[in-house]
């Protein structure tokens, strides 16, 4: 897949080594020698075991739980590569933590997403490659190029393969007003109809479904979102579709499976038959469920990395 002679290195932190291995293997490379550990007092220790001088380095690290440890690992890996005279450093962040803290919702709130973006740039990252930022505007928080890949490029073919296209009895459902643009794109590609859940969130991680915009009675509904955290929004929406809207059955899909707190219990007790997630975040045994189907994102990231390395356009991957 690699045509020119400039060195390319794929290095991995501790957050998702399996994904980094898949990417390196697809590129016909071995994963770079990099040991990321901790000193006895908890400080992060990074040791790169091979030369990266002049190389095009891609650091694969999802900033998922434990978020702060994984962020620090990434920052110190970037610094190590910069001080080792790497030619270009691309932070490959399948899931970008802190992305939801992208604005001040009340007085004296921080904008943590901007802070993390600044720190990554200061550490020495030359480029960021990520997937489904919580808001597209987050790209403007960086003063370096950002390629924001679309999880829909994996989820839409999966849905089409499972349910087919152009079906009048299928509905794509946005679980809130903020996800309407994403849901509309699914509808356009699959030729399904659109419904919207209108809800009010009284406080963080607590949601209350108000009403359903669209006729879902007797329809098979697919809830689409960018991430699932505590699964409250998703499960309340599924219940409303069945109990209020009279939907026939409910499925769901999302790019990032954070699945914190009571998420798995809520999912198990919900009317959702199947939840398709991308493996931007590894799924530990404690968070596995028969309802969850994990789809691979390595092929998309592999193609994007190859295009960045070859200095060719990444934009075809956004269509």
Structural write-up:
- With about 325 residues, the protein is α/β, with parallel strands linked by helices.
- The protein folds into 2 domains: about 10-150 and about 300-319, Rossmann fold (3-Layer(aba) Sandwich), CATH 3.40.50; about 150-295, Rossmann fold, CATH 3.40.50.
- Helix content is about 30%, strand content about 30%.
- The protein is built from 8 helices and 14 strands.
- The chain has helices at about 15-25, 65-85, 110-125, 150-165, 180-190, 230-245, 265-270, 300-310, and strands at about 10, 35-40, 45-50, 55-60, 90-95, 125-130, 145-150, 170-175, 195-205, 205-215, 220-230, 250-255, 270-280, 290-295.
- It has a 7-stranded mixed beta sheet with strand order 10-9-8-11-12-13-14, with helices on both faces.
- α1 (about 15-25) crosses α8 and α4 packs across α5 (about 180-190).
- It is globular, with a radius of gyration of 20 Å.
- About 40% of the residues are buried.
- Residues about 1-5 have low confidence and may be disordered.
Helix content: 25-40%
- Rg is 20 Å
Number of helices: 8
What string, H for helix and E for strand, traces the elements in order?
A: EHEEEHEHEEHEHEEEHEHEEH
CATH structural fold name of the largest domain? Rossmann fold
Which structural category fits the helices and strands?
Answer: alpha/beta
Morphology call:
globular
CATH architecture of the largest domain: 3-Layer(aba) Sandwich
Strand content: 25-35%
Mean pLDDT: 93
| Low-pLDDT regions | 1-5
Give the domain tally.
2
Quaternary structure classification:
single chain
